[in-house]
Write a structure and sequence with these properties.
Length: about 350
C-alpha cells in the first residue's frame, strides 16, 4: 500500500458554458495510489483491496467501498468543497452518461510512479495506464458532448494526483502540464517513517524510523527546487508546493492538540502499534476512530483526512506555498470573471 500522503494537481476554475447545470461547474479527476483509490481495485484480481469490513465502517451504510479508510478519503472531502458528488471509479460500470461529467477516479492501490512498484500485488493500474485511461475517458466523453466541450471540461477541471510514497521518482508533472494542467499543486512526501507499519518493524518506543525519515528529508527540498525551476519555465504560480511533512508532523508531535489520543497506534490491525498485517474482521478495532490519526497500518482516518484538507484549503505558507487552495480557486475565478 502507499506510505505517502498527497500529491495534488489543480487546474483553473473555469466556467464550462453549456454543460448541464445539474453538475458542478468543475469536473474532478483523481490519479494515484491507495490513499485516493475509491474502488478501482475492487474490479481487479489483486491483493490490494479494501472491499470488506471493517473498511467503510463509518460510512452511512457501514459498507466497504474500496476506500482504504473508515469513511471518506481525501478526494471525497475535496468533492465536498467543490459542492459536487464523489467521482466514481473509472472501472465502475456506473460511470457512464451524465456521471462522466462529474469526472472520474483512476487511482489504484499499490502503485507508484515506476511501473515495477507494487508488483507484489499482481494486478494494479500503474500510473502510465491511469493516464491512458484518462485519454480513453476523453474519447468516451467526446462521443457524448463533443470534442470541444470535452476539451473545455478537462481544461477547467481539478486534478488530484497522489504518488511518491512507494518510490522517490517524480517524472509526471510535465505529462500533466501537457494534458492541460495550468495550476498544479504538488505535495512533498510525508513522514513515511512514522506510519504504524514502519513503527511495528523498526521502533521500540514509537519513535519514527530515522532512515525513512532521512529519505523524505532529502527528497522534499529537491522537489521544491524542481517546482521553482518549472515555475521559472512556465510562469510563477503554476506549480504550488505542499509541505505534507509539516502537516503530519503537527499530528505526530502533539496529537492531543488536534483531538487525537494517538498518532502511533493504528485503529485497525494487530501486533505492535496495530501496524502488522492487513485490517480485517479479526483485527483489533478501536472504539472511537476520531481519536486516531491512522486507520490502518498506512492510511489516515476520515477525521485526519479532513484536517489535512483543511490545511490545503486555508493553511499558511508554512504549509502550502505560494498560496493555499482557497486562494488558488479565488484567483482563478477572478481571472475568469475578468475575461468575461
Amino acid at each position: 500500500m502507499a506510505s505517502s500522503w498527497l500529491i495534488l494537481a489543480l487546474l483553473p476554475a473555469l466556467c464550462l458554458g453549456t454543460l448541464p447545470s445539474s453538475h458542478a461547474a468543475r469536473a474532478f479527476f483523481v490519479f494515484g495510489d491507495s490513499l485516493v483509490d475509491n474502488g478501482n481495485n475492487n474490479y481487479l484480481v489483486t491483493a490490494a483491496r479494501a472491499d470488506s469490513p471493517p473498511y467503510g465502517i463509518d460510512t452511512p451504510d457501514h459498507r466497504a467501498t474500496g476506500r482504504f479508510s473508515n469513511g471518506k478519503n481525501v478526494p471525497d472531502i475535496i468533492s465536498e468543497h467543490l459542492g459536487a458528488e464523489p467521482v466514481l471509479p473509472y472501472l465502475s460500470p456506473e460511470l457512464d452518461g451524465d456521471k462522466m461529467l462529474v469526472g472520474a477516479n483512476f487511482a489504484s492501490a499499490g502503485v507508484g510512479i515506476l511501473n515495477d512498484t507494487g508488483i507484489q500485488f499482481a494486478n494494479v493500474i500503474h500510473i502510465s495506464k491511469q493516464l491512458l485511461y484518462f485519454q480513453q475517458y476523453q474519447k468516451r466523453l467526446s462521443s457524448l458532448i463533443g470534442a470541444e466541450q470535452t476539451a473545455r471540461l478537462v481544461h477547467g477541471s481539478l486534478v488530484l494526483i497522489t504518488l511518491g510514497g512507494n518510490d522517490f521518482v517524480n517524472n509526471y508533472y510535465l505529462r500533466l502540464y501537457d494534458l492541460g494542467a495550468r495550476r498544479v499543486l504538488v505535495q512533498g512526501v510525508g513522514p513515511i517513517g512514522c506510519v504504524p507499519a514502519e513503527l511495528a518493524l523498526h521502533s521500540l518506543d514509537g519513535s519514527c524510523d530515522r532512515e525513512l525519515q532521512r529519505a523524505a528529508e532529502m527528497y522534499n527540498p529537491r522537489l521544491m527546487a524542481l517546482l521553482e525551476e518549472l515555475n521559472a519555465r512556465y510562469g510563477g504560480g503554476v506549480f504550488v508546493g505542499v509541505n505534507m511533512q509539516r502537516i503530519h508532523n503537527d499530528f505526530i508531535e502533539d496529537p492531543k492538540a488536534y483531538g487525537f489520543e494517538t498518532a502511533t497506534q493504528a485503529c485497525c490491525g494487530q501486533g505492535r502499534f496495530n501496524g502488522m498485517g492487513l485490517c480485517t474482521m479479526v483485527s483489533n478495532l478501536c472504539a472511537d476512530r476520531d481519536t486516531y490519526v491512522f486507520w490502518d497500518a498506512f492510511h489516515p482516518t476520515e477525521r485526519a483526512n479532513r484536517l489535512i484538507v483543511q490545511q490545503f484549503m486555508s493553511g499558511s505558507t508554512d504549509y502550502i506555498a505560494p498560496m493555499n487552495l482557497s486562494t488558488v480557486l479565488a484567483v482563478d475565478l477572478h481571472k475568469e470573471q475578468m475575461r468575461t
